[in-house]
Amino acid sequence: MRKLTGAFLSLLVASIMLAGCTKYADKTQMQQLSDMKSEISSLQQQIQTAQQQKTDLQKQIADKQDQIKKLQGNEQFLQQKLQQTHQDTTKTN
Amino acid sequence: MKRLSILAVVAILFAISSVASAQEEMKFDDWQAQMTTLTAQRDSLKNVLTQLNTDISGLKSQIASLDQQYQSEMQKYLDMLHATSADMQAFGLALSTLAGQANDYMKMSDQDLCAHRADVQAMGARIDSIKASRLALAAEFYDQVQSLESNYAQLQARIANCSQVASKTYTVGTWARNRDCLWNISKKKTIYDDPWKWPKIYVANRDQIKNPDLIYPKEVLNIPENGDLSSAEKSAAKAYYAKKARMMKSNTGDSTQPSN
Q1: Is the pLDDT of residue B255 over 60?
Q2: Does A5 sit within 8 Å of B4, measured CB to CB?
Q3: How close A8 gets to chain B, by Cα (Å)?
Q4: Cβ-based burial of A61 (10 A; exposed 0-12, middle 13-18, buried ≥19)
Q5: Searching chain A, which residue's CA lies closest to the CA of residue B32?
Q6: Which residues does A50 contact at the CB level (< 8 Å), separation at least 6?
Q7: How far apart are the first and last CA of chain A?
Q8: pTM score, whole prediction
Q9: CB-based contact, A81 to chain B, within 8 Å
Q10: What is the ipTM metric for this complex?
Q11: Do B42 and A36 touch (CB under 8 A)?
Q12: A62 in contact with B at a CB cutoff of 8 Å?
């Protein structure tokens, strides 16, 4: 019986000592952690917006390149037709 | 035994409260590990964002350069066409209108087409004017002009057969004997039995009737099939009545019906 009491007492003392020795993060440090998480979340959002903007700009560039290509094609077409018309006129004369 | 029970309860309560408080708070080592991981993640994200912003800035300047290139190419193209953007727009509109009219005529029966012979023929001059422009050679309009020309050729071929197609003709008699004017001809039971349909005869014979008040003996008029007045016939009648009204203002006593 005395041995059992001793064992309980030892367990109690050991758990008190164990709890007292562990170091925990204080309030300021926890606030730092929370701020860091918010900053990361905000950065992720900014990246998402920037990626969308980049995609839009890339699409705009592709459209503009197509427009220029089409315009250059039209110029070539007109050039051909003007030459053809000129040749036809020369033949007629 | 009682002391032992109390000690056991105290020990269990203490252990439970220690675990609970450990769950609420974070061990310093864990905090430090998390901060290290999150700092690395934040720095990496910052780098990604910086790179993206650099890319965006590059793309924006590329767009500005492409805009400039487009403007320059467009100016070159317009110079080749001897036109402005406004000219191109106006040409496109005129061409579409004409092509629309030609399509409408294409859908008409030979009979109706013959009734609009003068209008179709008038299109020829407008088509020639369109073809004379350099804009007709522009890729945007070329196919449409070719199609218009082809449609017009088909319309002309159909119009050439108009005299064969006309179901009826009427040879104008003299005013003294037959009282023939467009109004009276239209009123005849053998024609339309309705004097208000005179514009049908007028429009179908515009090549020989310049003024609905003046038709001449021995003229052979095409008589289109009976039916409601077409929009061209209505507008011809409207123009006639407007002209008459103007004349009546200066000379009172004129009638509003076509007469010889």
Answers
A1: no
A2: yes
A3: 7
A4: middle
A5: A25
A6: B49, B52, B53, B56
A7: 134
A8: 0.58
A9: yes
A10: 0.75
A11: yes
A12: no
